[in-house]
Write a structure and sequence with these properties.
The protein is mainly alpha-helical. The chain has helices at about 1-15, 35-45, 60-70, 75-90, 95-110, 120-135, 140-145, 150-155, 165-170, 180-195, 200. The longest helix is centred in the middle third of the chain and has 17 residues, at about 95-110.
């Protein structure tokens, strides 16, 4: 009689599963979280983006365009090259990797040269190129902009450029500049006002 009661209790204890088999301690394990490797790799790729003082891509046409933009003195030549560069960023068939490489150099050239160019056509054309890159590569664009807050100041101050052509080009960025970027605006204004003459600024 005692043996039969014990057998009944054991049978009840094993009825937790349909088969009555012991599942093992794995049944109590928590489900593994979603593998974050893809997100981590994306963040790593974004954080590795840096301005480049030289064009490091493999597109021979871009190499020629950047030489015209950065080395030529003629305003019309530079403006035309910038228009072609804008078309490059607007072309969705182009490799985004190659476009990011081009953008890394463009941001350097804008910060060091194009923003201060004597020709209004060049200053306005450069803003249109940056806008095209912004629309095509928003994450990379944001990463490059945040590397030097002064860039926000340069673009914002372009709204007060003596040339209406440049002002119109700068208007497209107004909504892009939030209060968090105002430190860059004041930083650029402060540096600009620190120069005794405009010539000194260009000789820095």
């Amino acid at each position: 009689m005692g043996r039969e009661k014990r057998k009944i209790r054991l049978d009840k204890g094993s009825s937790g599963t349909a088969s009555g088999e012991f599942l093992g301690f794995g049944a109590f394990a928590q489900p593994s979280p979603t593998d974050p490797s893809s997100d981590a790799s994306t963040q790593t790729a974004q954080s590795s983006l840096r301005w480049s003082p030289v064009y490091t891509g493999s597109d021979s046409q871009l190499s020629i365009l950047f030489k015209k933009i950065g080395q030529k003195r003629d305003g019309s030549t530079k403006a035309k090259a910038l228009s072609e560069l804008q078309a490059f960023f607007e072309d969705e068939t182009k490799s985004k990797k190659e476009q990011v490489t081009a953008l890394s150099h463009l941001m350097f050239v804008y910060h060091s040269k194009l923003n201060f160019d004597d020709f209004a056509s060049v200053r306005s054309a450069s803003l249109y190129v940056i806008d095209a890159a912004k629309r095509r590569l928003p994450k990379a664009w944001q990463t490059f902009m945040d590397q030097e807050k002064e860039l926000w100041g340069m673009i914002w101050c372009a709204n007060a450029d003596p040339s209406s052509e440049v002002k119109n080009a700068a208007q497209i960025f107004r909504e892009s500049i939030s209060m968090q970027e105002w430190s860059g605006v004041w930083g650029f204004v402060t540096r600009t006002l620190s120069y005794g003459r405009a010539k000194t600024m260009h000789q820095e």
